[in-house]
Design goal:
Chain lengths: ~625, ~160, ~550
């Protein structure tokens, strides 16, 4: 391949330690693990390189460390805390297999000797179910190394697009591939780029939304952290296709790791003259800048994002005009999210037909899901479009032990709840739309019997209530009222209010009306999709609402205001443990006498029940 | 003094108009920890943007603070995955222990609390961040421990599972 | 270009590029709106103007959707009506239930919308937001619990007035309209123009009332209360009651107020003559100076604007007290007793602030104790059973009963400039009845007039309304060929003041003009008493501020 890049062939040490470093593993403490490795290597004089890679997506196993010793397959360890480093290294560098608890698996190779009784990584259900295109090779490369990225076949698409294709041809190729906006819009990326290309303007903007403002989505961040060059390559191709001469990566200011890595990568591309004036002698100019946003959920809406970039309150504009005609500073602007742009290089290299062969008839390609909640493994998975929800759950190891999955909340605050019965729905735009569901940015929160549906609805509506920009009435006022209705349902029965049950019942009747008006009249997608969680919950989990309203019972035991604790007189020994632990001073009784709970003071925390050794505390 | 800092950032980043305003405010807050009234007045004079507009823009984003941070700034994640791990029990407990709710600063200036969006430890929840250290898989007992240490003016050891 | 759209199954013609709302309005189809005001940019915030698209069955906002050929919409389908009702329901849930005592009772747009949409029960129950009430300002009260966040005040304050004292702050549930860090309007850049009160659909923004304080003083034996009536207020009340004669109305009001318990009732017209006479002599004095330039205004809001927005040009401001303050000072000097209270009736709230300015205090006490607006006066009279036309008449005390037509005209659109010009020319001995001066009365944002005084060329520019001031002030103040810039914050002069009654301003304007054309005394400088007083040591301490810096 003829590129200005030279693959870095500097001498490598015989052993390599790959530290999967992303925000998730930093939180899990990989920096300390890293220090422990450095210390170990130095003190034992082991000739090994420490390599920082991106996170491969098994976030619940963080920190994950892969170790390669001469002659043996690369082996992967999970949950490596500093205290585990010595034991693991003692074994591995002496060619002995360490304890099973930390072993995740081994990577296949042709010329190395495998470890016995160690599963192959790609045969683990987590990886076997996935179709890793964007995430492929993520654990092997240094994120900020252009040569590492090139070794994965990077930059071929960029060269192909700029050297052999016209912008219009690139647009058509992307349009033909069926790639749609992965941020939730589901609008054809190719046509969006083409609309901007057709505008006559001396300045056009391409904005990459890497803000990840959805509280349950982290796939974009993981991708940027692990493969920043993939995103940049996608941006350059998309800018070439749309004629944009200024690209802006809009990213949350708290994502320091992503910003640092992106900055280093952009700097390298400028040095290679793949950015700047006249890139690759094509006569095309492109500059990329990073905009660190203070962040707000509503800024995921493209016009609100543009308002933010212009230095205003991030309130959505009225459309039309659409940003493709008049966006940032009145110029044609195309806004895409990270995942969409990252799909572009593969489409260009392999062709639209190849991309269409992935997925199903309705939606092509793959989709990243940020799986969190009650599955065995939490993290990021890349699944072929058209796979079922059950497949995603199975990939993540199914439910956690002793738990039973009740529902999946799909698509973040704008999304809805899917009950177990519907886990067979193929994940594509057509089928989800039919169920009034929404893929959003791929947030995939798994709920089990310990999660209360009413409370989950309240959580999301409370989120909306705080994140609504406050501009239009239905969204601002509606979200407050809906939150209140949920709070009323899950609150302690108030005897003073005679019509309390009636009020709660009335509240649920009004929910539907309010949800409809919010959906129909809100100014932007945030408000329009906000009631989805309410409507889907009412549709599928009505009995749980009725339980809350009429029986004053929360089957998950989450709505603590509905719980009432009492002490069994026969079992209580009067040890006083519960009274000591009670944070609200709600337990009275003298020593060696039966204690009792003052229900007016009880906050329902359950400390007494936890602390009682004689099972004398009863929960009703 | 504040005025000098605003002036410094403006000339350093070549900010001329509103599109640089958020950058200016972010840098200002990174350096001083808080945005104060006199800063807003200074920025208004330097950039010719009305004071109310600056405050309107800044207050829109939860990131900006108008109350100083405490010596120990506790950020507690309220993202979806932490919610599913019952982070609300933690926020309630934190409020009960410190008497502070979201966005407040204790009178002695020791502890301030902020409920934030995702901190990034989505499979390690509930996640707590005190100044620059993370605390994962926090439960009520751990939280009590942490807070009592903080209230005695000590930074607790980092701990993870 | 014409576009044909179908509204409620009837075809109507629309213009290409216009919004559905304007097309509907032009065709006489009424749909409710709340946040939309024709002179402001659409925000699409209230969602009341939604209409149903017959093809997609979706609701689309009429205020921000442009018409398209072949569009089929329903303006009052069941779905549309239900949505509108729900939106109003939602607003009402978060709105105080004190309509009966509200300042805007029966003038409230939210009230009339809920009436229009036939809302007969409180559908939703919820916690009302606990808005604070900002009473820091001298002229207005901002009750945030009544604010429905339509954003009109924010738009007017920034787009038309150019002051931006308030803005939307915070977001979501916490969003309110407020000043910086909630410090209060007193500490903000508010110039008290009062436009926000006028356009506020609810009672969130209202005048700070002084009625209670005045009512407490009425009837106290030792207290004498004097009242200053401004010409605009008189004309506005005249228009409401269909009394077309300015002097008749004045006499009725004087009699009514005397009956109510006020002792001395005067108009500020005599003081206006003093003002113009002194302004004329000041101009004649200064015109010989090289680089002569003067910014002249008796509008406290406009003066405040210059001082805070362009302090570098504040020295051009003419150092004259406004007629209100001149009258106040005269009244206080006459009686010299501490139990004499002066109340001024004015067409706007800016006067409330003006009365409390440090340079309008005598020995620490204000020359004018209370300023009430035209509104408030009407309330005051109504509570005391006064009905118009009032059976009794009473003339204004001397010397306040003698005034020229200029003194009334200056409150009319462009009348201030005209009065100034007429007075200046009459010192030259020129005929001041020329019809070409009345060209200044045209309702245009910028009016210019050129003449020569003492052999020198004089160019006067009159800027009408804050929008014009924002746009052109800097241009003319730096233009060396312009000598006098006249500014007033309300479009159309004081007669259109923010606190005038809700009648047609054209009628009250007509009352002023009728008086102007019938008056015998045309110019302030011809007023015999003014002439008699014009020896410097009598007039100057009353009319002039000691120095420009005091302004």
């Amino acid at each position: 391949m003829n590129t200005p890049l030279e693959i870095n062939k500097s001498k490598t040490a015989p052993s390599q330690i790959f530290l999967q470093t992303g925000t998730c593993s930093i939180v899990a403490g990989i920096t300390k693990t890293r220090d422990a490795f450095i210390q170990y290597i130095e003190s034992h004089q082991i000739d090994a390189d420490l390599i920082e890679t991106g996170c491969m997506g098994m976030c619940s196993n963080d920190p994950v460390v892969d170790i390669l010793i001469p002659g043996r397959n690369k082996i992967s360890f999970r949950r490596v805390m500093p205290s585990d480093v010595a034991i693991i290294c003692d074994c591995i560098f002496n060619n002995i297999l360490p304890e099973k608890t930390h072993i995740l698996g081994q990577y296949k190779s042709n010329d190395r000797f495998p470890w016995e009784f160690v599963p192959y990584i790609d045969e683990l259900p987590f990886f076997a179910t996935q179709k890793r295109i964007l995430l492929s090779g993520i654990e092997t490369i240094r994120p900020d190394s252009a040569s590492d990225y090139e070794s994965l076949g990077g930059f071929t698409a960029l060269l192909k697009a700029i050297r052999t294709m016209t912008p219009a041809a690139v647009c058509s190729e992307i349009a033909e591939s069926g790639l749609t906006g992965r941020g939730g819009g589901g609008y054809s990326t190719g046509s969006k780029l083409r609309t901007v290309l057709q505008q006559h303007s001396y300045k056009k903007y391409l904005i990459c939304n890497a803000d990840e403002s959805d509280p349950g989505s982290f796939s974009g961040r993981l991708l940027v952290e692990a493969k920043p060059f993939l995103l940049l390559e996608g941006i350059i191709i998309a800018a070439y296709a749309s004629g944009a001469n200024q690209a802006i990566i809009y990213i949350r200011n708290k994502y320091r790791l992503s910003i640092d890595r992106l900055q280093r990568c952009i700097h390298q591309l400028y040095e290679l003259k793949w950015l700047g004036d006249d890139i690759l002698d094509s006569g095309i100019n492109l500059r990329i800048s990073i905009y660190e946003s203070p962040g707000a959920f509503v800024c995921g809406e493209e016009t609100a994002l543009i308002e933010n970039l212009e230095g205003n309150r991030g309130m959505p504009r009225t459309k039309p005009p659409y940003p493709a005609i008049s966006g940032l500073h009145g110029m044609p602007t195309v806004v895409n999210n990270v995942e969409t742009l990252c799909n572009i290089p593969a489409i260009i290299s392999n062709g639209a037909a190849w991309f269409r062969s992935i997925g199903n008839n309705n939606t092509t390609g793959t989709k990243l899901f940020s799986v969190s909640g009650k599955t065995e493994i939490g993290g990021v998975v890349e699944i072929e479009m058209g796979s079922t929800i059950r497949q995603v759950i199975d990939a993540c190891g199914g439910p956690q032990s002793h738990s039973e999955i009740k529902a999946v909340h799909l698509g973040g605050p704008s999304g809805g709840l899917v009950p177990v019965e519907d886990f067979g729905i193929p994940l594509d735009y057509y089928h989800l739309d039919k169920q009034k569901l929404y893929l959003g940015s791929g947030s995939f929160a798994v709920l089990d019997q310990e999660n209360c549906i009413v409370n989950t609805c309240r959580y999301f509506m409370e989120f909306i209530e705080g994140e609504s920009c406050g501009k239009c009435i239905p969204c601002r006022e509606g979200s407050q009222r809906i939150t209140e209705i949920f709070k009323r349902i899950s609150n302690k029965p108030n005897d003073a209010e005679e019509f309390a049950t009636l009020l709660r019942f009335k509240g649920v009747m009004q929910l539907e009306q309010m949800a409809e008006v919010m959906h129909e009249t809100s100014l932007c997608g945030l408000g329009q999709h906000a009631p989805n969680v309410v409507t889907t919950a009412l549709k599928h989990f009505r009995e749980e609402f009725e339980e809350h309203i009429f029986e004053r019972k929360c089957r998950a035991g989450v709505c603590k205001n509905l719980k009432s604790y009492s002490i069994d007189h026969t079992a209580c020994t009067g040890c006083g443990m519960c009274a000591k632990r009670c944070p609200a001073d709600a337990i009275a009784g003298s020593l060696r006498q039966t204690h009792y709970i003052i229900s007016e003071r009880c906050i329902g925390c359950g400390m007494c029940m936890e602390s009682c050794k004689f099972n004398a505390v009863i929960l009703k | 003094m504040g005025s000098a800092l605003v002036q410094e950032i403006i000339s350093e980043k070549k900010i001329t108009d509103k599109s640089g305003l958020l950058m200016l405010l972010q840098i200002l807050q990174e350096r001083t920890g808080v945005i104060q009234y006199h800063d807003i007045v200074d920025i208004s004079k330097q950039l010719g943007i009305a004071e109310s507009k600056i405050f309107g823009i800044a207050s829109f984003y939860n990131y900006f603070r108008f109350i100083p941070k405490g010596k120990f700034h506790i950020e507690i994640c309220t993202g979806t995955s932490c919610y599913l791990c019952d982070c609300e029990k933690m926020t309630a407990e934190l409020t009960r222990l410190t008497g502070l709710s979201n966005g407040e600063l204790s009178r002695d200036g020791l502890v301030s609390i902020e409920h934030t969006g995702c901190l990034g430890g989505c499979s390690q929840g509930p996640v707590l961040k005190i100044n620059d250290s993370f605390f994962t898989h926090v439960d009520v007992a751990k939280l009590r421990n942490l807070v009592s240490k903080l209230q005695s003016g000590e930074m607790p050891e980092e701990m993870s599972v | 270009m014409q576009v044909e759209i179908t509204v409620n199954r009837t075809k109507i013609q629309a213009r290409k590029g216009e919004t559905i709302l304007t097309a509907l309005q032009r065709n006489g189809i009424k749909i409710p709106t709340l946040c939309n005001l024709p002179e402001l940019t659409p925000t699409g915030a209230c969602r009341l103007c939604v209409v149903e698209d017959e093809d997609t069955r979706h609701l689309i906002p009429a205020c921000s959707t442009p018409v398209q050929t072949g569009m089929k919409i329903l303006t009052h389908s069941p779905k549309v009506i239900r949505s509108r009702q729900t939106i109003i329901d939602l607003l009402l849930t978060n709105h105080p239930d004190d309509c009966l005592y509200c300042d805007k009772n029966r003038r409230c747009e939210l009230q009339s919308l809920s009436e229009e949409l036939y809302i007969r029960e409180r559908l939703f129950t919820g916690v009302k937001k606990k808005g604070k009430t900002d009473r820091s300002s001298q002229g207005l009260v901002f009750d945030m619990s009544k604010c429905i966040l339509c954003g009109r005040c924010v738009k007017v304050c920034s787009e038309i007035i150019g002051v931006a004292a308030i803005d939307h702050v915070y977001r979501g549930k916490r969003s309110v309209v407020d000043t910086v860090l909630g410090k209060g309007l007193y500490y903000s850049s508010c110039i008290q123009c009062g436009q926000c009160i006028n356009i506020c659909p609810t009672g969130a923004l209202r005048e700070k009332s002084a009625i209670e304080q005045i009512a407490a003083k009425i009837g106290q034996e030792s207290v004498k209360i004097s009242v200053i009536l401004s010409a605009s207020s008189v004309a506005s009340i005249a228009a409401v009651f269909g009394i077309r004669k300015f002097e008749e109305m004045t006499e009725m009001l004087v009699a009514a107020l005397k009956d109510t318990g006020f002792s001395t009732i005067v108009t500020d017209s005599f003081a206006s003559d003093l003002y113009f006479a002194d302004a004329t002599s000041l101009i004649c004095e200064r015109i010989v100076q090289p680089d002569f330039k003067m910014v002249i205004s008796d509008c406290p809001a406009a003066i405040q604007w210059v001082k805070q927005k362009h302090p570098e040009f504040a020295h051009f401001l003419v150092p004259l007290r406004s007629p209100q303050q001149i009258t106040g000072r005269m009244l206080k000097r006459e009686t010299n007793g501490s139990n004499n209270i002066v109340v001024a009736v004015m067409p706007c709230i800016a006067r409330k602030t003006e009365a409390l300015q440090p340079n309008n205090l005598t020995r620490g006490l204000p020359d004018i104790d209370f300023v009430v607006t035209t509104h408030e006066l009407l309330h005051l009279l109504r509570t005391r059973g006064v009905t118009m036309p009032f059976p009794k008449r009473c003339t204004v005390d001397k010397p306040y009963n003698i005034y020229s037509s200029c003194s009334v005209l200056h409150e009319y659109n462009g009348g201030f400039a005209e009065s100034l010009v007429r007075n200046l020319l009459s010192t030259e001995g020129k005929n001041s009845f020329d019809s070409k001066y009345t060209e200044l009365r045209v309702n245009k944002p910028v009016k210019t007039f050129e003449t020569s005084i003492s052999g020198r060329n004089l160019k006067l520019v009159s800027l009408n309304g804050m929008q014009a001031i924002n746009e052109y002030f800097l241009k003319y103040v730096t233009d060396n060929s312009v000598h006098i810039i006249e500014i007033s914050s309300c479009v159309g002069g004081c007669i259109n003041g923010s606190s005038q009654l809700d009648s047609e301003a054209s009628i009250s304007g007509k009352v002023l003009l009728d008086f102007e054309s019938s008056g015998l005394l045309r110019n302030s400088v011809q007023n015999a008493i003014v002439k008699g007083m014009s020896s410097d040591n009598v007039v100057k301490p009353i009319t002039r501020y000691e120095s420009n810096s005091e302004l």
